[in-house]
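Before drawing any conclusions, I looked closely at one protein, both as residues and as discrete backbone shape codes, quoted below without any editing:
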Amino acid sequence: MSLLHLVLVAIIQGVTEFLPVSSSGHLILIPNLTGLRDQGLVIDVAAHVGTLFAVILFFWSDVRIAAAGTLRLAQGKVDTKGAFLALCLGVATVPVVIAGLAVKLTGLDEMLRSTAVIGWTMLTFGLVLYWADHGFPTDRPAARWSLKHALVMGLWQMLALIPGTSRSGITITAARTLGYSREDGAKLAMLMSIPTIVMAGLLLAVDVVATADMQALRDGLIAATLSFVSALAALWAMFRLLRSVSFTPYVIYRAILGAFLLILAYGYGW
């Protein structure tokens, strides 16, 4: 894998993982639109590891509380703020893990990797994000996250298994419909990404173990580092912008890209 290709994949993964524009959709489009070969599972896992460390670092205070709470939860106790947060994150993760396994075992994941599918999901769920961002009150802080809302957001998160939907985008959409502010909704969506990325990485890693070699591991280290840096920058930029602007710029981007991809898919047979 060339260094340029590696850098391209890692930076796109890092930047798009947490923005509501779909990292998986963009990664699938690289070989579809450029003719470059698929980056492979090793790079996928490495890029996910990089973005995982980025979101953990960015939300370290909340992650530390949830980690301590996980120990209490393992003892069957939900008597602290951290334990309740850990329980909510667990409840929110279960639906996508079950659905993800079903999609992988049935082979639907490969069937959905098309330019047309990504075009439709980019456009459709971009408009749904706009509807949620502007059509609901914002009177509920992240501190009032409940088990019911965690489950609802977890069910919405299953839609992210369709390439182009965006995991962060669909969970932010869910949070906005439940009354959370832009910043609080994005924060909950990012915290939900941690166990989801861990589970997705472990699932991919099962296939990687048998195929990895020293060259692949070196490429993986580069990909992890670059995706970490780019993901951290994307998180900082998004939360800074959310103080003064809505999600509309991302919706516009999704609509333009979605329309372009649909033209390629139906007009040129891509």
Remarks:
- The radius of gyration is 18 Å.
- The chain is about 75% helix and 0% strand.
- The chain has a mean pLDDT of 90.
- The chain has one domain: 3-267.
